[in-house]
Specification:
- With 73 residues, this protein is mainly alpha-helical.
- It has a single domain, classed as Recoverin, domain 1 (Orthogonal Bundle).
- 62% of the residues lie in helices and 8% in strands.
């Protein structure tokens, strides 16, 4: 599976209502369902970084860019 396919699959898992956007609530719900322990403050920090247009949601392009930034050394 290519990186783009993996990112799209991961984004889809987080986009619970399948509207093409991840909200903080969706992100927190999905991470909790995966058994991840994450605080609201951590989610806010992630959104501060990833939500480049500051609309309170993360789109696939924003998600992809944030992932790539986080993956750089």
């Amino acid at each position: 599976m290519s990186t783009n396919e993996e990112l799209t699959r991961t984004f889809s898992e987080l986009d619970v209502n399948d509207d093409g956007q991840i909200t903080m609530t969706e992100f927190l719900t999905a991470m909790t369902a995966r058994g991840e322990k994450i605080t609201a403050a951590e989610v806010e920090s992630i959104f501060q970084d990833a939500d480049s247009d500051k609309d309170g949601r993360i789109s696939l392009p924003e998600f992809t860019e944030a992932w790539r930034r986080a993956d750089r050394p």
